[in-house]
Specification:
With 254 residues, this protein is α/β, with parallel strands linked by helices. The longest helix has 14 residues. It folds into 2 domains: 162 residues, HAD superfamily/HAD-like (Rossmann fold), CATH 3.40.50.1000; 72 residues, 2-Layer Sandwich (Alpha-Beta Plaits), CATH 3.30.70.1020. The radius of gyration is 18 Å and the shape is globular. A 9-stranded mixed beta sheet has the order 5-4-3-2-1-10-11-12-13, with helices on both faces. Helix 1 crosses helix 7 and helix 5 runs parallel beside helix 6.
């Protein structure tokens, strides 16, 4: 059912945006994504329109986000909330014992070397194995990553994504990042809106729902906690350009 004229009226909103699959089309490898100049301009204008209350909420590191969107610099939660940069530019990063990943790094590097098409992304505090170029290896990757995660279960969790499994520090989520931003200016007191496309965004949808905001799943028809859906990355960009109520998402039936 469509909700023309009722989605996000002219109120003050806090925009939280996933990146890959939401703002950017997913590429074969993380380094292959392209950021159109028009999107940088759109995000900058949207941030100004919302009084600076726009943050990127991503599995990528803040350093990677800055590289992609340069020269623009936005408030951001990187690595699924592990690191955060507030509206004043202050970055908070917890201390993670990365030595705990030493054995996992060696074992996953060997797995990558022995199977063409696998890509190990080493984030320092997390390890992500991508199998988009070799989907037939999903089971092999899952078994290997699950075994490692079991050994490190007190400190790390296994986080699934689209053709990727990531071993990441326990206790950090997109939900936590959004809730933290909503306690800070200029986000505090606004109605939160979060757009994402993947299973890693689900806890963010739940947080926004509980805060009385608007959750948007981009693409796909999977079951989701989001209450609205946009069909594509391009539709999200179009909405961000003007926050036009006639360019509305579809409400997901409950």
């Amino acid at each position: 059912m469509s909700i023309r004229g009722t989605f996000i009226p002219e109120i003050e909103i806090a925009l939280f945006l996933d990146v890959d699959g939401t703002l950017l089309e997913i590429a074969a490898t993380p380094d292959a994504v392209k950021v159109p100049a028009a999107l940088r301009n759109t995000l900058q204008l949207a941030s100004q329109r919302e009084g600076g209350a726009l943050a990127l909420i991503s599995g990528r590191s803040i350093q990677e986000l800055d590289r992609l969107f340069a020269p623009c610099v936005f408030p951001a939660a990187g690595q699924h909330g592990l690191e955060m940069r507030d509206a004043n530019g202050r970055i908070a990063r917890p201390r993670i014992d990365v030595a705990l990943l030493d054995d996992a790094r060696v074992n996953l590097s060997r797995l990558q070397e022995s199977h063409e098409g696998l890509l190990l992304e080493d984030k320092g505090t997390a390890l992500a194995m991508h199998y988009r170029l070799a989907p037939r290896l999903e089971s092999r990757v899952s078994v290997a990553m699950a075994a490692i995660a079991q050994e490190l279960k007190d400190d790390f969790v296994l986080r699934p994504g689209k053709c990727v499994l990531e071993l990441a520090p326990r206790g950090y989520t997109k939900r936590g990042a959004i809730e933290a931003f909503m306690r800070q200016k200029p986000f505090a007191g606004r109605t939160p809106v979060f757009a994402g496309d993947d299973i890693t965004d689900e806890d963010g949808f739940e947080a926004v729902n509980e805060l009385g905001g608007h959750s948007i799943r981009v693409g796909g028809m999977e079951a989701t906690a989001a209450r609205h859906r946009y069909s594509s990355v391009s539709t999200v960009a179009a909405w961000l350009r003007d926050r036009n109520l006639n360019r509305h998402p579809v409400r997901i039936g409950r």
